[in-house]
Amino acid sequence: MIRGTGNMNFPAIVSTVGAFVLIPLSPLLIFGWGPVPALGIIGGAVAALAYYLGGTIWLAAHLLAGKSVVRPSFANIRFRRPLFADILRVGLIAAVTTVTTNLTIAICTGVVGSAGGPAAIAGYGTGARLEYLLVPIVFGLGAPLVAMVGTNVGAGRRERALRTAWVGAAIAAGLAEFVGLAAAIFPHAWLSLFDTDPAMLDAGTKYLRAVGPVYGFFGLGLSLYFASQGAGKLLWPMGANFVRFAVAVAGGWLAVQLTADLTNVFLAQDAALVVYGVLIAVSVGSGAWFGPLHWPRAPRVALNKGPAS
Fold this sequence. Notes:
The chain is an all-alpha fold. Helices cover 75% and strands 0% of the residues. The protein is globular and about 60 Å long.
């Protein structure tokens, strides 16, 4: 809500302060120290819940104190069907898309495990974690894209909404591709932060060298997905996500059945990311938001050649 008003600073401050609390709080509750008992893995869950609870209270207090453009009022609250419809029209589809993305990673983890065992799962999980870390990078561009595209659509500035989406998508794709290529060239720089087991490093290296070079398509698709939220047009992004799910899972399963080679399993995920990014880009470019648009051409400027000699 606060980001939607154009204020990116305050939510960023809350998230940053929360991270400085969460990072030391997690091991403290997991392993214990002094009077603090060791809770084991439950301590990590408690720390995460405390982080979200504290952040929620802080953000809500900011809104209720009247420091934002949006000032909630609890007087004469009425639940209205049109508001629910507007929210769920975008939010429900977005939730399904997020669930599908995580389900893709979860099932592919099982596929990788059936092909290479626990060490392969560790390598794949560590490599795929880098993809998860791309999400907040792209989200940093996607959050303003939602607001900027939505504002321009509401103002009837459709051409400007599309230009904004494409500029944001180009930046996100470039950043994601840079990270992916760096990971593909230097996979151990990332993987060795977590373990040095040779089998784990081998599986993780195969994943990053297969999938890393196409991370740009992931950044492209995800940024346009955020922009599509602002336009209120999420059917194509949701469809692209389902196609990614099908290609990654079915392709990975076939690779295990036919070759049992981890590289082929990861190439199926490679293809899935390419299809995901291309489908969303083609849908937006071909008029999925507003139908075909006729872009205005820049007027020609006649050169003044001066008086004839």
